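Internal tracking record. Fields below are filled automatically when a chain is submitted to the structure queue. Please do not edit lines marked as system-generated. If the sequence contains nonstandard residues, flag them in the REMARKS field before resubmitting.
Queue: standard
Priority: normal
Entity type: single polypeptide chain
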Amino acid sequence: MRTERFFCADAARARGDALPGTAPYGLVWVLVEHHAPWPADGYDGLPLDPVAKALLFEAARAVRARVLLIRRHGRRTQEAGPRRWAMLRYDGTGAHRQQWGTWERDEDLARIADALEAPGETGEPGHPPVVLVCAHGRHDTCCALRGRPVARALSERWPELVWECTHVGGDRFAANVLVAPDGVYYGGLDARSSVAVVEQHLADRVHAGHLRGYTDLFPAQQAAVAAVLARFGPAGRHDYRVTGTSRAGPHWLIRVTGPAPRATAYDVEVTAHRAPPHQLTCNGPATSAAVVHEVTSIRVG
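SYSTEM-GENERATED OUTPUT FOLLOWS
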């Protein structure tokens, strides 16, 4: 008897899984260009010199940096010359920093470790953000099936900004796009919607429609900001700030303050609950109960 193949993103859409509040927390990202096929566990699975590999791993862990392998769409085997690396740092003021370099030998990865261990002002501000599209098929089938068409569409429009990358979290929300070091996750994208979303993002207009969350916020805060954007329209990445957070069990009260000069404050009530257990990834048959952050009210403070 033939069984129908399971696709986690199809199942999530059929259930209506909520996007807001699902972005992993993070302020620092390490990008390592790698042309050969990516292992299922990404950087951890690369056959690198163990000393160089551990050096970067420990430096990244010390600052809670996420290490992602990257490649240009459709040019995996054609690339010649040194591979690139980057260290991207989020800054709450919007003056995000990037440091780029190249590597040829495994030992060259020590330069990334040095960048991570340097003070927070390391790197240069003012660069355009990097648009990362998860296309990690060995980790999850939906990431490849849904991510690669998005990577193609975005690469045709912004060839210098867009990279395919390894797992960023939330397979069921494929196609996933992470804009860094802005620290913004978008999900549930296809080729057409991704171009519209990224175009608006680069114009500093974040829409709520495909927003998973801001990576400097925790899930309830992410859901609160997304709800304000959905209610009052798109806004710049740093237009809204979370200025108060209190919790009583599963109930949260999040104060979100808008931009000057009005600086209107909104009190957003959020309730956290667990959804029924479901299979949340293509390659992992075990079921898991995801936490959902539901906004129950928005009041002007």
